[in-house]
Amino acid sequence: MLKRDFLFFLFSLFLLSLPAQASGILGAAITPAKPTPALAAKLFGLNRSVYLRQQDASGFGWVVLSNGDVIGYIGSTWEIAKSVGYSGRPLDVLVAVSPKAVIVGAKLMQHNEPVLTLGISEADITRYVNGFAGFDLAASHISALDNSADLPDVISRATVSTGVIRDGILRTARTLAIANGLIGSGGGIDQLSFSANDWPSLIKAGAFAHKRVSMAEAAKKMAGAKVPITPGKGAFLDLYTGLIDPPSIGQNLLGQQAFTRAVGALGPNKTALIVISSGLYSHRGTSWRKTGIFDRLAIVQNSQRFEPTEDDYIFIKKLAVPNAPEVKEISLFRLPPRINPLKPFQVEVTASRPATTGQAVTFKIVADYLLPQAYQLAPPPEQRPLWQKTWDQKHLAIGIVLAILVVQTLALFAQESITRRPALWRWGRIVFLSTTLLVLGWGLNGQLSVVQVVAFLHSLLTGFRWETFLIDPVIFLLWSFIAMGLLFWGRGVYCGWLCPFGALQELMNLAAVRLGVKQIAVPQAIHERLWVIKYTLFMAILALSFQSMHNALILAEVEPFKTAISLRMIRAWPFVLFVVVILFAGLFIERFYCRYLCPLGAALAIPAKLKIFDWLHRRPQCGRECRLCETKCTVGAIDPLGRINPNECVLCMRCQVVMNDANTCPVLKRRARGAQSKPPMPAPTSGA
């Protein structure tokens, strides 16, 4: 016993030292995958070379250019959508989007998903990821869990992992399209509604940004000019500017015909900005007639700066809106997609005059503009996280799991009553284990794995995210229940009741015993030494995960759960043979795998040392005068001294049934014989 406690002490020290050990391994930030020119050309289906330009801090991903033209954009799901797989590690897919807001290709670059590593073929993954090509982002916004003929179906054997891939691809592609002006952000400009308004009404509604600079202000700003400006109250520049795309602005301002011509001349995903001015200074100037560039005017949004060219310009002769003021110049400019019309931007006019020193004296006149909400469409409801959608779609599964957990909790709390009724305990346990195997395991895929333990420890070291563990409600509910159960009952709360593979072993062994298969009693000395295997496996998987998660997942294949439960034996023959060998051994040694090989059981045994209550009773005679419970314990969790080892006990309660059965327990039988051999007490006599 002392040796075993020392082993757990050393293992606890190992776990406590993990953050320090991992700081060098996991300290570096996980960087998103980067496309190569060859991969970019392949995603866009080109045989010629392409050039990649990474977006600045205000953008996402990479711009893909060919022969100087932008042919699309590429983004990483880890950078943009922060896609985290079921393993708790990044799940990174490069997504390519065309200028028409169509997904043209995707490539899975990095993942540590167990089922994708060894459970699903590479061809299945490639076919699934390639299935997103051709999806039109501008047509509609599909949820990651919605069924759509335009999207590939999630792979039934890997619903969580492929669901995360789908969610990451769609959110990344949509973000790329919105950031580069290919589609609206979900709300957009109201281009249908119209209400008649005059000029004062438009000004009151905030349809235009207004900036006025007087002659006195300009004279002060341009002091030192070769030809000085005469101060006065008149306007140096009186500027109005705004978007005309909403009919309630543009149609009122220009009239029906001029507005229709102006909007019809716009290219895809472009908007129109009107600049109206009066005063001494011209916002257009004259140099644009030679250079083709309106060098006095610029539209600025964050780090994006746009100077209109002659190709972007439409001349407007006059305003049609009632009560409009007298103006000097009216210009209409097409804005490129990189200027988001729904976000604030500035219209800059640079005023310049030659200086006496030979250099020009300049200053900027800036009008801040934001399209009022009254001219915008209401954005759609915010898309909820993937885990919330998953929970909404699995109400039935959640209800079944909660019902199973409630029944188990009641059974554990009613231990005394149940174990006094051997038939109730026996049939109740058979029914519960059958439900665990058929419903929880094969039906709901509720098989836990040591991979989830490793993923949890990694998340504590690299930044815990609830979303990672909430993706699968069945697994989350089981782990939540087990976290509490470990403190109350120990590891047996899962291993003995809720583990589908454990249930499969016990039910098969029960059938073997009924058929007369002779059971092998492993000597105690060998039995205890074989325990080392599962703890060594767990420590090896955990340690290896810090060097290579992929290699750790390969070693984690020592768990037969994926083959027997998750994939229902539909797998390559070596994996199936491994499961068959384990189950065959379990016919002669009940729960052979649980006893000696299960790294998940070893992982659960560590925190089980902290359990608060001791629900299983013993008598002073146990292990001294009687060792019947030791021989009846099917997992060898009772030592020759009669003590129950909580690290090995699966909480089957068989020992409690034996202790409470007057026809089986030698102590109770001895007490009954003693009570029968005693002479009856004489009846009391009444006094004289």
Notes on the protein architecture:
With 688 residues, the protein is α+β, with helices and mostly antiparallel strands. It folds into three domains: 31-179, no CATH class; 199-375, no CATH class; 387-672, no CATH class. Helix content is 44%, strand content 13%. The protein contains 31 helices and 14 strands. It has a five-stranded antiparallel beta sheet with strand order 1-2-3-4-5, with helices on both faces. Strands 6-7-8-12-11 form a five-stranded antiparallel beta sheet. Strand 2 (62-66) and strand 3 form a beta hairpin. Helix 23 (532-547) runs antiparallel to helix 24 (549-555). It is elongated. It starts with a helix and ends in an 11-residue tail after the last helix.
How do the strands and helices of this protein lay out in sequence?
Elements: H1 2-16, H2 18-26, H3 37-43, E1 51-54, E2 62-66, E3 69-76, H4 77-80, E4 92-97, E5 103-110, H5 114-119, H6 122-130, H7 159-179, H8 199-204, E6 209-214, H9 215-221, E7 235-243, H10 247-254, H11 256-264, E8 271-278, H12 288-291, E9 297-301, E10 304-306, E11 313-315, E12 329-335, E13 345-354, E14 360-369, H13 386-393, H14 395-413, H15 415-419, H16 422-443, H17 450-462, H18 466-470, H19 473-488, H20 492-495, H21 500-514, H22 524-530, H23 532-547, H24 549-555, H25 561-566, H26 573-586, H27 592-596, H28 599-608, H29 628-632, H30 654-660, H31 666-677
Antiparallel strand pairs: 1-2, 2-3, 3-4, 4-5, 6-7, 7-8, 8-12, 9-10, 9-13, 11-12, 13-14
